[in-house]
Amino acid sequence: MSNNRIGVLVMSYGTPESMDGIEAYYTHIRRGNAPAPEQLAELTARYEAVVGGVFPLRENTNRQVTGLQTALDAIAPGRYACYQGLKHASPFIEDGVAKMAEDGIKRAVSVVLAPHYSTMSVGGYNKRANEKAEELGIEMASVESYHLHPKLIEALVDRVVSALNKFDRKEPIKVLFSAHSLPVRIRESNDPYESQLMETSSAVAERAGVTDWEFTWQSAGRTREPWLGPDILETLQDVADKNYKQVLSVPVGFVSDHLEVLYDLDIEAKAAASELGMKFERIEMLNTDPFYMETLAESVEAKDRWR
């Protein structure tokens, strides 16, 4: 049965559905190699510190998919049907495409819940989606980035301005924009990831009236190869050495509450800042912010219209 609706594959990294799923999730990230007991214990402890055994993180992505469907229905009622595909958890990217085929979808657009393009992140998601779509006879177009979409910038500016009000505005505030680190080798192929992150950060800082800011990295993988730096923990030390007492974290590379934000920033970085005698606050994440949902919807529609 043919279906004239346009499928929209909404992709993200994925997170376990419960504490019981952490080992399988970690094994998938490690390409089928089970983690050592101490590695599993460390990751489990991080999740426990964030969620306390109750696991709401997966719901963030589910709500974003629902929010995008609502935003698309407002633009073009009945034209689009959203499906979810995750990199490291079920439903996997291929599962989402297979469900489209099962529903008779013939044309689709893929979009990642990450505004900035890298061949190692968004490029990899889109490659998997397109390969499965080709196998199943679906014409798939892919959104590559939306890092300067006016509504994305506006949503981030609103959060920065709001968060700055938590500080003593008479004293210096260092604003630290951050994103997930990637291996340094991405620079060898002129990957746009770094430049797009800087463009977003510059646009947000300018609109928010922030002049005292830096870009830093976080959440680097633990592999033998070098990753982009400096890490935010190093940057916090540097900022403290310059006698700052106030830091605002703006994780511009992330769009929802998950481990890299709730643990790496809210627990680890905040504790490091406290030890250095600094007040540390973070902007609220985009999650299902209407401007972010409209950013995604308009990016999908534009790719659908111009392919």
Automatic annotation (TrEMBL):
Acyltransferase among keywords: no
Pathway membership: Porphyrin-containing compound metabolism; protoheme biosynthesis
This enzyme's EC code(s): 4.99.1.9
Keyword Metal-binding set for record: yes
InterPro entries: Ferrochelatase (IPR001015), Ferrochelatase_AS (IPR019772), Ferrochelatase_C (IPR033644), Ferrochelatase_N (IPR033659)
Binding site for Fe-coproporphyrin III: Y13, R30, R46, Y47, Y125
Compartment annotation: Cytoplasm
CDD domains: Ferrochelatase_C, Ferrochelatase_N
Catalysed conversion reaction: Fe-coproporphyrin III + 2 H(+) = coproporphyrin III + Fe(2+)
Alphabetical UniProt keywords: Cytoplasm, Heme biosynthesis, Iron, Lyase, Metal-binding, Porphyrin biosynthesis
Annotated binding of Fe(2+), by residue: H180, E260
Function of the protein: Involved in coproporphyrin-dependent heme b biosynthesis. Catalyzes the insertion of ferrous iron into coproporphyrin III to form Fe-coproporphyrin III.
Family: Belongs to the ferrochelatase family.
Protein name, per record: Coproporphyrin III ferrochelatase
Source organism of this protein record: Paenibacillus mendelii
